[in-house]
Design a protein that fits this description.
The complex is a heterodimer of chains A (111) and B (112). With 111 residues, chain A is mainly β. Chain A is built from no helices and 11 strands. In chain A, strand 7 (62-67) and strand 8 (72-77) form a beta hairpin. Chain B is built from no helices and 11 strands. In chain B, the strands form 2 sheets. In chain B, strands 2, 4, 5, 6, 9, 10 and 11 form a 7-stranded mixed beta sheet that branches. A 4-stranded antiparallel beta sheet of chain B has the order 1-3-8-7, with no helix packed on it. In chain B, a hairpin with a 2-residue loop joins strand 5 (44-50) and strand 6. The chains are: A mainly beta (111), B mainly beta (112). Chain A binds chain B through residues 32, 34, 36, 41-46, 49, 89, 91, 93, 95-104, and chain B through 4, 6, 33, 35, 41-45, 48, 56, 58, 90, 92, 97-98, 100-106, 108.
């Protein structure tokens, strides 16, 4: 039973445009949300996070939005750059329990 | 800045053999996590340690065991290897529970 889903396995975006990655979860008890970026043969790298008391967090080109009522999390990257091409995972915490990863979205930025 | 170090980067074993993966966390991080990522899959949590004690357990087979040592490094021991154990094994550390994780580059295990 997948508690955290990223329904788009892949996404292609033109360089300079906005990339929007989505993540849906089922357990309303998740309270800390993170996005990780992963290149092939490397470990995931932390990008940005948001706690359940906020609905938006911004860091440079990256913005994370949280809609708790819809149990939906999204990552916006603007403007998209070729170096953003990677697999993106959302990851969620429930209290002090283990970090649960989503299924991943492969983002390709087209020059 | 120091990162999480995993060794070896690549490991090839045959069925029924044993493998040991090592993880050295970022200094002053007392929490270590192990994840397994199969081809095309999301990382699956195996086990975690906090202050050298097992803190949580996920989908880790009984054939696997792990521990965290006094210097906070961790080892994942895998016995009676099966073809399905072929995967990328990540270690991550954090300064404490419920903090963001910092991942190592992973160990690619291939079981032939």
């Amino acid at each position: 039973d997948q508690q955290v889903k990223q329904n788009s396995p892949s996404l292609s975006v033109q360089e300079g445009r906005i990339s929007i990655l989505n993540c849906d979860y089922t357990n309303s008890m998740f309270d800390y949300f993170l996005w990780y970026k992963k290149y092939p043969a490397e470990g995931p790298t932390f990008l940005i996070s948001i706690s359940s008391i906020k609905d938006k967090n911004e860091d440079g080109r990256f913005t994370v939005f949280l809609n708790k009522s819809a149990k939906h999390l999204s990552l916006h990257i603007v403007p998209s750059q070729p170096g953003d091409s990677a697999v993106y995972f959302c990851a969620l915490y429930f209290g002090n329990e283990k970090l649960t990863f989503g299924t991943g979205t492969r983002l390709t930025i087209i020059p | 800045a120091a990162g999480v170090i995993q060794s070896p980067r690549h490991l090839i074993k045959e069925k029924r053999e044993t493998a040991t993966l090592k993880c050295y966390p970022i200094p002053r991080h007392d929490t270590v996590y192990w994840y397994q990522q199969g081809p095309g899959q999301d990382p699956q949590f195996l086990i975690s340690f906090y202050e050298k004690m097992q803190s949580d357990k996920g989908s880790i087979p009984d054939r696997f065991s792990a521990q965290q040592f006094s210097d906070y490094h961790s080892e994942l021991n895998m016995s009676s290897l099966e073809l399905g154990d072929s995967a990328l094994y990540f270690c991550a550390s954090s300064p404490g529970p419920n903090e963001k994780l910092f991942f190592g580059s992973g160990t690619q295990l291939s079981v032939l």
